[in-house]
Amino acid sequence: MTKLNSKRISSNLLATGLATFLLGAPIAMSAQPDIPAGAGISSWIENGSGGKYTLQILEGTLPEAGKSVTAKVLSDSNCAPDDEGINHCENVIKMPDGSKLVGIDNHRMSVNRCLRAGEKVTISMLTDGWATVLTKDAKKTN
Q1: The overall pTM is greater than 0.85
Q2: Left, alpha or beta for 63 (phi > 0: left; psi -120 to 50: alpha)?
């Protein structure tokens, strides 16, 4: 006959239960998009530092690679922060040809300001679906 050790059984049951819970528990994932290569930032908190913004493009056509254009910010809206304190501000930008570019500025407003309606910015393609936006402040410092 096999002698059962109640402490060992309890310990094994506890370990099995904990493992089952952890494997079935939802994994906390960031609501932030991955930062594209070449953005020059390691966190969305840094986005906008020195007047340089990485903008996630939702609609519109960017200048071809290696080219930049001067455009006008028409709006900055939907800036409520998420659970991690990152704002995902929606910007509409009027391009020189009259078309509109719609993008998301993922940044922390308490660290770096939003793009301002009415301001002129320089836009270039960073990578597919991403743009680099420079304010006049960036031109002075970079």
Answers
A1: no
A2: beta
